[in-house]
Amino acid sequence: MDEQASKQHLYDVAKRLGVEGRSRMTKSELLDAVRKANRSETRKARN
User: Fold this and answer.
1) Residue span of the structural domain in which 33 resides
2) CA atoms of 12 and 4, how far apart (whole Å)
3) pLDDT tens digits, 27-45
4) CA-based Rg of the chain, rounded to a whole angstrom?
5) Is residue 25 part of a domain?
6) Alpha-carbon separation of residue 40 from 6, 17, 29, 33 (angstroms)
7) Tell me, what's the pLDDT at 2?
8) Is residue 2 assigned to a domain?
9) What is the 3-state secondary structure (H, E, C) of the chain?
10) How far apart are CA 1 and CA 9, in angstroms?
11) Which residues form a coiled coil (predicted)?
12) With 80 as the cut, is the pLDDT of residue 1 above it?
């Protein structure tokens, strides 16, 4: 995920990934949460 992405875009991606607490997160927190959720989804897909 790109640091240049808007907060709204990050929020939308976080919503799609099911990240909890996203409405209270800052842009940097959303970015970290989306990256973490993406890693988890990738791991699940590989198993």
Assistant:
1) 7-46
2) 15
3) 999 999 999 999 999 999 9
4) 10
5) yes
6) 22, 10, 17, 11
7) 84
8) no
9) CCCCCCHHHHHHHHHHHCCCCHHHCCHHHHHHHHHHHHHHHHHHHHC
10) 10
11) none
12) no
In a domain, 30, yes or no: yes
Contact partners, residue 23, CB within 8 Å, separation at least 6: 11
Residue 4: burial class (beta carbons within 10 Å; 0-12, 13-18, 19+): exposed
- Cα–Cα distance between 1 and 20 in angstroms, integer? 18
Domains contained in the chain, number: 1
What is the pLDDT, as a whole number, of residue 4? 95
Token readout for 40 is: 């988890």
pLDDT digits (tens, 9 = 90+) for 12-26: 999 999 999 999 999
